[in-house]
């Protein structure tokens, strides 16, 4: 094996097989949603040591069954953790962690000789901040996501979900109505070689003080020799980033601009799931 091949094999092992090509089949463990580490400043208050932060997300999938019955359906488990770290404060505390295990069923649709892939994803997720008692916030939701690719470079996604939340260990629809939402619309435009990707996601809210949660990202691959490593600029506006801030007095509306590094998933439908 030549040196570049050896480097690629070692890199794939380190990343759980995420960069293995489709011809090799799905590895047992791979990247699910985007994995990133970013740091930045708020846009709605004065940036300082108390308001600047660092965020990171780790998201992996564990393939259970592939091509079930020869019908193209895959069944997999996944785990995603998103953390907000107030790393610039003297004691470097973690502001919040959101833990999200789930079970998913995925099916691609191929249309035309150009190999454009549309897909559908069903799932059930549990999202929790890991606390009990008065600090506890969690959501259990089922969802269906359809992703459609136009002319190989523009991808649109629509997600419908239904769930129920828990606040102070008491069941409530407030978590979905005011903070998480029932619908999500995502768009992604990318160059043909995916060196540049621009994506956005909007989640309408039917109650509360703002009409929607917003996420956007610009991702640039700095070199043509790597198909997984990106520089990113991420924008977030809304209440859905930190579950602990939900349903409390004087909730802090996040309005953040962050910059960092990211490993992109192979499927755009998974990337758009902010």
Question: Could you please describe the fold and organization of this structure?
Answer:
By secondary structure, the protein is mainly β. It has two domains: 1-29, no CATH class; 32-271, Outer membrane phospholipase (ompla), Chain C. Helix content is 8%, strand content 54%. It is built from three helices and 14 strands. It has a twelve-stranded antiparallel beta barrel. The N and C termini lie far apart (38 Å).
Strand content: over 45%
Average pLDDT over all residues:
85
Enumerate the spans where pLDDT stays under 50 for 5 or more consecutive residues. 1-24
Task: Output the structural class.
Answer: mainly beta
Secondary structure tally: strands: 14
- Binned, the helix content reads under 10%
Radius of gyration: 19 Å
CATH superfamily of the largest domain: Phospholipase A1
* Count of helical regions: 3
Report the biggest beta sheet as strand number plus sense, adding barrel if it closes. 12 strands, antiparallel, barrel
Distance between the termini: 38 Å
**String of helices and strands:** HEEEEEEEEEHEEEEEH
Per the CATH scheme, the topology name of the largest domain is: Outer membrane phospholipase (ompla), Chain C
């Amino acid at each position: 094996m030549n040196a570049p091949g050896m480097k690629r094999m070692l890199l794939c092992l380190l990343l759980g097989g995420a960069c293995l090509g489709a011809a090799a089949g799905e590895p047992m463990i791979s990247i699910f949603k985007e994995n990133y580490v970013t740091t930045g400043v708020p846009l709605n208050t004065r940036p300082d040591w108390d308001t600047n932060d660092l965020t990171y997300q780790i998201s992996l999938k564990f393939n259970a069954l592939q091509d079930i019955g020869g019908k193209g359906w895959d069944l997999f488990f996944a785990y995603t953790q998103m953390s907000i770290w107030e790393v610039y404060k003297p004691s470097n505390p973690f502001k919040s962690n959101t833990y999200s295990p789930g079970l998913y069923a995925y099916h691609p649709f191929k249309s035309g000789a150009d190999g454009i892939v549309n897909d559908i994803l069903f799932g059930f997720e549990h999202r929790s901040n890991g606390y009990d008692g008065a600090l506890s916030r969690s959501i259990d939701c089922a969802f269906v996501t359809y992703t459609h690719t136009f002319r190989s470079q523009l991808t649109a996604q629509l997600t419908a979900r239904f769930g129920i939340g828990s606040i102070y260990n008491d069941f409530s629809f407030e978590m979905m109505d005011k903070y998480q939402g029932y619908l999500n619309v995502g768009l992604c435009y990318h160059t043909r070689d995916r060196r540049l990707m621009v994506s956005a996601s909007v989640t309408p809210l039917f109650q509360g003080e703002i009409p929607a949660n917003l996420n956007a990202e610009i991702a640039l691959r700095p070199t043509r020799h790597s198909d997984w490593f990106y520089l990113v600029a991420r924008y977030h506006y809304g209440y859905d980033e930190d579950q602990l801030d939900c349903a409390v007095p004087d909730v802090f509306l996040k309005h953040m601009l962050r910059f960092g590094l990211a490993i992109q998933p192979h499927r755009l439908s998974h990337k758009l799931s902010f």
